[in-house]
Amino acid sequence: MPLAMFFGNAIFKKIKGASFFQTVFFLPCVICGVAVGLTWTFIYNGNYGLLNGFLKAIGLGGLQQMWLANKETAMLCIIIVIMWQYVGYHMVIQLAAMRNIDSSFYEAAEIDGATGWQQFKYITFPLIKPILKIDAVLIITGSLKYYDLVAVMTSGGLKPCNRGYVYIYVLSVI
Fold first, then answer.
1. SS3 70
2. How far apart are CA 136 and CA 111, in angstroms?
3. Is the Cβ–Cβ distance between 86 and 29 less than 8 Å?
4. Could you read off the pLDDT of 83-135 as tens digits, one per residue?
5. Which residues pair with 167 in a beta bridge?
């Protein structure tokens, strides 16, 4: 939610290309969970994945590993994918709440000399707090539907590795 709020606030402040960024951030949430899982499995693949290729290209080849087979990194990898997929959805919800705020509040704050952070802290955040509560409920209830992503990325929760099988608890994503 904080990342979605950061992006939503940046777009709300009318940055150049705001509608483009809004589309780019929202696009992953309309992609099928299985397609997202397969794409990110390719990125995280330990043998030919893009992440390990990138690490090798920038001289950090010692950090290469089997990302989804290692129990220390698998859950973090899945959390990153889920955040990537749904941050745009929650950004749009929060952006809609920000656009609902009367602009006279911001005009008065500018006249009083309030900085951008002060405007966010004393105007934006308090006025979108009810929507943030609803968004938090949506995040909690939405976390129950990640089974397909975890199943695709970890081959059903079991992933072979050098030390046998590492069991990844599907419910721990919640």
1. coil
2. 34
3. yes
4. 999 999 999 999 999 999 999 999 999 999 999 899 999 999 999 999 999 99
5. 158
Please give the Cα distance from 119 to 110 (Å, whole number): 8
CA–CA separation, 121 and 123 (whole Å): 6
Residue 119, both tokens: 């405007």
Residues facing 1 on adjacent strands: none
- Tell me the β-bridge partners of 158: 167
**How far is the first Cα of the chain from the last one, in angstroms, to the nearest whole number?**
15
Could you give the CA distance from residue 145 to residue 75 in angstroms, rounded to a whole number? 16
CA dihedral over 24, 90, 12, 5, signed as positive or negative: negative
Q: What is the pLDDT of residues 143-156, one digit of tens each?
A: 888 777 888 887 76
- Count H helices and E strands in the chain, helices first: 9, 2
Would you say 150 and 172 are in contact if contact means Cβ atoms under 8 Å apart?
no
> Would you put residue 168 in left (φ > 0), alpha (ψ -120 to 50) or beta?
beta
CB 88 within 8 A of CB 26: yes
C-beta separation of 133 from 151 below 8 A: no
Q: Against a cut of 0.70, is the pTM above it?
A: yes
C-alpha 89, offset from chain centre: 9
DSSP-based three-state secondary structure for 7: helix
Longest alpha-carbon distance in the chain: 65
